[in-house]
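re: ur question from earlier - yeah i can do the single chain one, its not a big deal. heres the input i used so u can compare w yours
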Amino acid sequence: MTQPTHIRGEHLPAALSLAATGHVPVLPLRAGKVPFGNCRRCTGNACGGRPNMKTPGPCLCPAPCHGWAAATTDPHVINAPAWARAWREAGAVAYHPGGAGLTVVDLDNADAIAWARENLPATRAVRTTRGEHWLYRGAMPSANAVRPGVDIKSAMAYARWLGPGTGTLIALPDTVCLLGVREPAPVRTAPVTVPVPAGGGRCPHRTPAFLARGIAMAEQRIADAAGGVHATVFGAFLAVLSTHGRCGCLTEAHMERLFAAARAKGESPRHCADAWSNALHRLGM
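and the output i got, formated as tokens:
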């Protein structure tokens, strides 16, 4: 026989309602906004239920272990005796945004909120202790400190449930997705001496067809990228410059073709320019 709800903690009814009506995976949080740690049985993921917390799903342990991956919509699990102590001691209800098909842009202060109002599409907003959570429909990889005072919480993360918020929930925009893209850091290598091509600066490849094929192959490589677009763009730029960058046969028209291919995959003009600059630096040019 399960314990009465009022004994199990004030947050349990809210969690059950959220899971049932909103299909939102929930979990209890301790005071200080942190999840309950693994029990002794699951220390170091010894149970094998969720290796490295990379995937949510059933665990051999019936307790709310494994942080964000413990989140569930199953009322039998949420209301189970194994979760009773956690709900009695809980300081808040949390949820897994990615599991609910949501992305939370966590704006930690007034400056971050002002930036969001100028740069992000308006959507549903939830007041927090120090700032706001902006919710978008759609999941993406989570990322911390994408800019001052701004975190992204979606897949493999949890957020506190602070109410339904106000405003119309809109689809996850590209502007938010791009916040999570990490640019390749410039490679600080020793300067490379650039030799003067034989033939008084003329292209050693003899035929424009060789360059044309190289540009076309780079465009296709970018177009075919299924993930890691920024790294793919950087690699394509690096390949073209390593072959054709020292002989003077590249023109602004060639560069614009490559930039256009990258923009078609969602890269911003700034990302294109940075990737090109990083490739030049990598080659010592």
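The CA atoms of residues 188 and 282 lie 7 Å apart. not sure if urs matches, ping me
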